[in-house]
Design goal:
- By secondary structure, the chain is mainly alpha-helical.
- The protein is built from 15 helices and three strands.
- Helices cover 62% and strands 5% of the residues.
- The radius of gyration is 25 Å and the shape is globular.
């Protein structure tokens, strides 16, 4: 708890004693309006805005610590809590970062990757990743085994690809960097559904609309999600602004390039380079991008709701403090 108090004090630019005293009041059942009005001498004159920010951060950081303990216990029970993993979990400073680290250890159904590993294809995936001078098809021949449901070279390569895709998608540092890149460069686009213009007149501003994710104001976010819920709008998150003219040949995106750099993959015309590049593209388009879209939609929704509540509270406060008409 001392670490939480210290962190909140640093974030708000106040003394630890002020935070500690306020936490004690809140834990005792006092509300923010009550503390702001009647306990100024205890909190050191913290105002309503500071108190609300303090309460929000207190709840967030407590939830973060509770989740950290659950994850530590889960990884420990799996026998995978080494010093490196422990340091990563303890160093996570946000829920998103913590979940990224936990992703490889999270209990899940048997995936294509797990099935491929059980069939003995993990060494093949490592060979293909680290030795691109080899022809993938020739390397895969040694891993064909009908008894393990690896019927032919194609099945062996598909299994190796599934293993690498999951490996790329569960790299915490990579996913964190890609998430922030999409947040900075991505767009939220909306279009009206066929035959819905008349019914959805109130959403006409969003019939053909797009705006950068990080610039979307809360009222537009909520309106777009409401239009989607009412089946008037189709929303699409675009990781970057599409080119004016679609490329005539496949182009490695900046996101795919980041994955390639992370795993030392480069297209130098070697026998295995094309297969690895295709694996990266498959990982980005079918798994990583989908996962990030879900994450960032939740970030937008949470931020918009928080801002809407803040504006409502501010307007209500002004109304209550206004002189009688």
């Amino acid at each position: 708890m001392a670490n939480i108090i210290r962190q909140i004090a640093e974030e708000l630019g106040v003394r630890e004693q002020q935070v500690s005293a306020t936490v004690e009041l809140l834990d005792g059942g006092a509300t923010v309006p009550f503390v702001a009005r009647y306990r100024k001498e205890v909190t050191g004159e913290l105002d309503d805005t500071q108190l609300r920010n303090l309460e929000e951060r207190l709840n967030y950081l407590r939830e973060l610590e509770a989740r950290r303990l659950v994850i530590l216990e889960s990884v420990k029970e799996q026998g995978k809590l080494d010093d490196k993993v422990l340091a990563a979990i303890m160093g996570a400073d946000s829920k998103g970062r913590l979940e990224d680290i936990y992703l490889p250890f999270k209990p899940k159904r048997r995936t294509k990757s797990e099935i491929a590993k059980e069939a003995g294809l993990e060494p093949l995936s490592e060979l293909l990743l680290t030795e691109p001078l080899n022809d993938p098809k020739k390397v895969a021949e040694a891993f064909v085994d009908a008894d393990k449901a690896v019927a032919d070279v194609t099945a062996a390569l598909d299994g190796a690809r599934a293993i690498l895709v999951e490996r790329f998608a569960e790299d915490a540092d990579l996913i964190g960097a890609l998430r922030e890149q999409v947040w900075s460069s991505g767009l939220m686009a909306s279009k009206v559904r066929d035959g819905k213009k008349a019914e959805g007149e109130k959403f006409k501003d969003y019939f053909d609309f797009s705006e950068p994710l990080h610039k979307l104001p809360s009222h537009r976010i909520l309106a777009m999600f409401r239009g989607e819920k009412e089946e008037i709008l189709d929303l699409q998150m675009q990781p970057e602004r599409p080119p004016a003219e679609p490329p005539t040949v496949p182009v490695v995106s900046s996101f795919e390039m980041k994955i390639m750099q992370r795993f030392a993959i480069s297209d130098q015309g070697r026998p295995g380079d094309k297969w690895l590049t295709e694996t990266v593209r498959w990982a980005w388009r079918t798994k990583i991008q989908v996962h990030l879209n879900i994450d960032l939609r939740m970030r937008l929704w949470t931020a918009a709701e928080t801002e809407a509540v803040r504006v409502f509270a501010s307007n209500l406060r002004d109304l209550l403090l206004a002189a009688p008409a």
